[in-house]
Amino acid sequence: MTSIGVRLSSFLLLSSLLGLCQAPANQNPGNATPAPAATSPAPAPANQNQTPDTVAPPAKPGDGNHASTAKPATDATPPAKRDRAQAYYHYALAHMYEEMVSMYGHSEYASKAIDEYKLALANDPGSEELNAGLAELYFKTGHIRDAVTESQDIIKRDPNNLDARKLLGRIYLRSLGDIQGGAQSSEILKLAIEQFSQIVKLEPDNVDDHLLLGRLYIINKDYVKAEGEFKAVRQIQPDSQEAVINLAYLYNEEGDNKKAIDTLQSLPEGQRNDKIYAVLGYTFEQQKEYKQAITAYKHAIEIDKDNLDAQRGLANSLLGDNQIDAALEQYKQVADADPQDAQAYLRMSEIYRREGNLTDAMGTLKKAESLVQDSLEVPYNEALIYEAQGKFDEAIQILQELVTKNEKPIATYSASERNNRSVFLERLGTIYRETGKTQQALDTFHKMLELGDDSAERGYSQIIDTYREDKQWGQAVAAAQQAVKALPKDRSMRLVLAGQLADNGKVDEGIDMAKAELKGTSDDREIYLALSQIYARLRRWSDADQALDKADTFSSKIEDKKYDDFLRGSYLERQKKYEPAEEMFRKVLASDPHDAGALNYLGYMLADRGVRLEEALGMIKRAVQEEPQNYAYLDSLGWAYFKLGNYEMAEEMLHKAMDHNANDPTVHDHMGEVYAKTGRLKLAAAQWERALEEWNRSLPADVESNDVARVQKQLESTKVKLAKQEGAKQ
User: Fold this and answer.
1) Inter-axis angle of helices 84-104 and 128-140, to 10 degrees?
2) For the chain, domain boundaries
């Protein structure tokens, strides 16, 4: 699904490669006809005695769609002596027939042109111009194998014949476009690289040749040689924008985004075109530096308002930066400019879903569905809409079908197929967990493990979370231990295990395990964050703050700073330091007004104390709008309604929360309050009993003793009232 802008591949497509391969200089552009695609590329060398420039003989008649029945010109019997006048006469006729092919497209003219070239060559067999013209004609008229043979014969006689090598290179490029992967594609790619390696030697100052060869090296994943070709272009033409763009793409492929950005910014601003800014935006987007990406994309659009790739990238970055309204408007502009852009409708549907506008979300998704066939992304998003509507059975059915549809032996999955399967399994498992189907959730997450790499890590994390939500603490520790054993190089799994050990009474062991990961580098941020949260759960606030301060020294990104501030706010709130806690949460919201966690935390903190209740309700509503199935946010919303005296809405929201998680004692406590306030004492007592039961099953870090004492007191008081009521009835 991959997901999925400026899509840098736009300048790496084979069509772009072909665009750099123009007809030889001695051809008249006005008479050239578009070269048809080769459905039968030249085969690999037949034996070890052939030189690198030769390929197997052309197919016999009928072997391929473009195989010619004519014999190569070199088979013609030459006259006793060279007759250049006759040769020129037949060449003129051949050229005339070529023009007629261009004008009328009749195949008989192509055959006559070929025959005339052969007669010309019979009178002047040593003419490389005639041989090259015949080879070019073969290519243009679809006689690909004959074109290959003719070009190879020329190169055998004259290894430095540039036109023949370029024609052969063009044939290989066109063949690459017709073959989708496999050993044959790799062989054709190798042959293309061999030809263009010779071409750049023959004309070393030709920028287009170096660019094309560099792109071929990228396809072959030979990044060192690719870099060499692009740098050669910059030596020839220091201000070459194409060289800079290709180098940036190369560095992005290698994962060195910083080097890509430095390369792009090495061009002075006055020399940057819209493509440079678009690629710069894409690179920032990949680093999740959305604000810088937005700036770069806007520069690209200022230069060329019709640059749709930049417009798409701008929309994606606005969405990534949670500028929801602006992103929606940008996607609408993209859809208006290109009504066939299914991705624009998909993203618009996503935004409508996030805003809670589920009718428009489904309607827009149907537009996307009408534009694509066999899409996996459309049904996946349909499942998300059903989930948001609370139609869990429908969502589960769609996800099950997606999982089954792409099921096959693990070894045969491509990288994108693995990723898609992992996404489908994770969403399906999450819905199972949210609807209380614990074992089905675990079974589903276990299927992610066999996919390896990031999928295995996420699978183990979900398994551990599922055991924790079901309060199976021993199994959560065991799953974390299994994850560390299965993924010995995965530091994040070791940190998860450290947290599990600390939660389950092995405090020193857990803390020591986390500290052992410290290396004195910027990567220590993750370790200090883990330590800080371990200390916070142990209520060692001073240690928690110190570890968080150390993590903050390595927080260079806006997202990192925002997360640090959120943690500080949560620590302060738990210590009942409400004013500084609110300050931290408002700092987070100033950076990102759509941060659901901060909206919910601050809104609940205000509602729980009965402070600024309408404002609190508004914040929590916005959090629920961002994540409509988050049970904690639904609980907060129910509690805010309760505090406002709207008991009907409070009960509705709390029921929804319990539909997603029936094991949270706080939700049962809140529901008990609603029932008690509305005079349903038996139901209230049942909810408080369930709350106490769940607290008894919880970890010490998750239990506030004051809450337990309060609920115990309320339950006892309610039981007394119920007993009196029963006595009065008797």
Assistant:
1) 20
2) 33-202, 555-648, 662-730
Instruction: Round to whole Å and give the CA distance between 202 and 618.
Output: 71
CA distance 476 to 461: 10
Residue 128, pLDDT score: 62
Instruction: Please name the helix (run of DSSP H) or strand (run of DSSP E) that holds residue 276, with its range, or none.
Output: helix 274-286
CA distance 281 to 274: 10
| 266 touches 286 (CB < 8 A) | no
Place of tokens 């170096």: 210
Distance CA 300, CA 314 (A): 10
- What was the pLDDT predicted at 303? 93
Domains 555-648 and 662-730 share a fold: yes
pLDDT for position 529: 97
In one letter, which amino acid is 57? P
CA 669 to the chain's CA centroid: 42
CATH hierarchy code of domain 662-730: 1.25.40.10
Mean pLDDT of each 10-residue bin along the chain, 730 residues long: 39 39 36 32 33 34 35 43 68 68 67 69 66 61 68 81 80 67 72 84 89 86 88 88 87 85 86 89 90 94 93 95 92 95 95 91 95 92 93 96 90 90 97 94 97 94 96 96 96 96 96 96 95 97 97 91 96 97 97 94 97 97 91 97 98 94 95 97 96 94 93 94 82
pLDDT value of position 140: 64
**CA distance linking residue 181 with residue 178, whole number of Å:** 10
Q: Residue 387 and residue 399: Cα distance in Å, rounded?
A: 11
Backbone angles phi, psi at 63, to 5 degrees: -70, -25
Would you tell me which CATH number, out of the four given (3.40.1190.20, 1.25.40.10, 2.60.40.10, 3.40.50.970), belongs to the domain 555-648? 1.25.40.10
Alpha carbons within 13 A on the beta-carbon side of 302: 9
CATH 2.40.240.50 describes domain 33-202? no
Q: Which single residue is written with the structure tokens 């939660």?
A: 503
Could you give the residue ranges of the DSSP H alpha helices within 450-595? Answer: 453-469, 473-486, 491-503, 507-515, 524-537, 541-552, 558-574, 578-591
